[in-house]
Amino acid sequence: MTDPLPSPAPLDDLAAFREVAAARLASFERVAVPDAPGLRRAGVVLCAVEHEGVPSVILIKRAYRGRNAGQWGLPGGRLEEGETAQAAALRELHEEIGLSAGPADVLGPLDDFPAASGFAITPVVAVLADPGPLLPSPDEVHSVHHVSLRRLAADDTPRWVPQADGGSLLQMRLGPDWAVHAPTGAMLWQFREVVLLGRAARVADFVQPDWTRH
């Protein structure tokens, strides 16, 4: 049964969102990808902030060079030696866009996503009440964007595109000419379902476009 979202406060007020999100993540039983030969790990942040008076999540378009050139993503990156996924995600948040977050800002993780690129990606949800100015690294980030919680929760945001093999490809339609696919789209979709709408959802089997393998 769906856990009704108290309306409208958690989608329109960052403090109210934090309270609801923390409770839902505390009861969420996440699925972790087990270690395996050749598996690499990464951490990313679903970072909620207030943008122009509206609670929003930060997305980036990666620089047009290196891994994932020009793709939509969440701030984050691969783990360094001895680092946890949460520590890596918060470190990369600062390195990529200049925002500082600590453990107290993190509400909890969602499921690991087994990316076709060979990475297991751990998304952590964080809320920054006073994030400070964005300082994107030009070496890693082409541009920074905000998507409102209401846009993520809207009925017409997820779109399922039939594939020749009988499966469906998720597109998170965040704006005109703005569609985000798995892996990032899958993590946004689980965030939407579990954290915003209070519904059970898994994403490990979501179809990933071929161009996300690089």
TrEMBL record:
Signal peptide: none
SUPFAM superfamilies membership: Nudix (SSF55811)
UniProt GO MF annotations: 8-oxo-7,8-dihydrodeoxyguanosine triphosphate pyrophosphatase activity
Protein keywords: Hydrolase, Magnesium, Manganese, Metal-binding
Domain of life: Bacteria
Gene3D superfamilies documented for this protein: Nucleoside Triphosphate Pyrophosphohydrolase
Enzyme Commission (EC) number: 3.6.1.55
Coiled-coil intervals: none
Pfam families from the UniProt entry: NUDIX (PF00293)
Names of the cofactor(s): Mg(2+); Mn(2+)
Domain Nudix hydrolase: 39-169
Family: Belongs to the Nudix hydrolase family.
PANTHER family referenced in this protein's UniProt entry, alphabetically: MITOCHONDRIAL COENZYME A DIPHOSPHATASE NUDT8, NUDIX HYDROLASE
Protein name: NUDIX hydrolase
Organism expressing this protein natively: Actinomadura fibrosa
